[in-house]
């Protein structure tokens, strides 16, 4: 019986990262822009930034950039400087691009259900592009990984608990139907990640 050698993972070239990170950030930012336009909400720190914008009137982009700042030192400790710098670039791009979309299109009449579905798919695909090029969109994922490594608390539990807090907080600011649409979008987002981002399936 012959033994097939496992494929050798080849690192992405710098120019590939330079194309992929902005592309992923563009898709993520457009999905978040759509959710904000319908008065919806997302999970993670993006959801915190959206809710903060509803409450304070401060732009999503600025809040998203600011709420991610405390998490970078965790990223350095756990993932190193390369990952952290790529994540900082990605978060900055998402924050800026989320404010740019509205300058070029008017989606004020988009159906909330359609917007939430499209947003979930776009954010999911964007996150996969970012993950596969050694970065993240910042936020709770970094904290969850740190808590698992440092304190033995499973990352999924930490991530789930934090997302529940965000959803609970949104009950006071988001209309019930819009919240249901947002939850559907979040389910689709997580399905995209679960189906397309499994360890061992990708060797780039």
UniProtKB/TrEMBL annotation:
Q: Which residues cross the membrane?
A: 12-34, 54-75, 87-105, 111-131, 177-195
* Signal sequence, start to end: none
Membrane topology term: Multi-pass membrane protein
Q: Which UniProt keywords apply?
A: Cell membrane, Membrane, Transmembrane, Transmembrane helix
Q: Name one Pfam family in it.
A: YitT_membrane
Q: What InterPro entries would the database entry show?
A: UPF0750_membrane, YitT
Localisation per UniProt entry: Cell membrane
Protein name stated in the entry = YitT family protein
Q: What organism is recorded for this protein?
A: Demequina muriae
């Amino acid at each position: 019986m012959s033994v097939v050698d496992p494929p050798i993972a080849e690192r992405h070239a710098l120019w590939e990262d330079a194309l992929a990170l902005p592309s992923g950030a563009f898709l993520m930012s457009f999905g978040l822009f759509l959710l904000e336009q319908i008065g919806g909400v997302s999970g993670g720190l993006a959801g915190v930034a959206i809710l903060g914008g509803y409450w304070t009137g401060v732009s999503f982009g600025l809040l998203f950039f600011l709420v991610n700042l405390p998490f970078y030192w965790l990223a350095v400790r756990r993932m190193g400087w390369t990952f952290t710098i790529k994540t900082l670039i990605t978060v900055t791009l998402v924050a800026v691009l989320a404010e740019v979309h509205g300058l070029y299109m008017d989606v004020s009449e988009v159906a909330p259900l359609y917007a939430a579905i499209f947003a979930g798919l776009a954010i999911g695909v964007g996150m996969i592009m970012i993950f596969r090029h050694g970065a993240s969109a910042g936020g709770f994922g970094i904290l969850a990984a740190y808590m698992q490594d440092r304190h033995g608390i499973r990352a999924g539990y930490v991530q789930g608990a934090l997302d529940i807090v965000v959803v609970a907080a949104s009950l006071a600011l988001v209309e019930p139907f819009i919240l249901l649409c947002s939850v559907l979008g979040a389910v689709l987002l997580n399905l995209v990640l679960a189906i397309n981002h499994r360890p061992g399936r990708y060797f780039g």
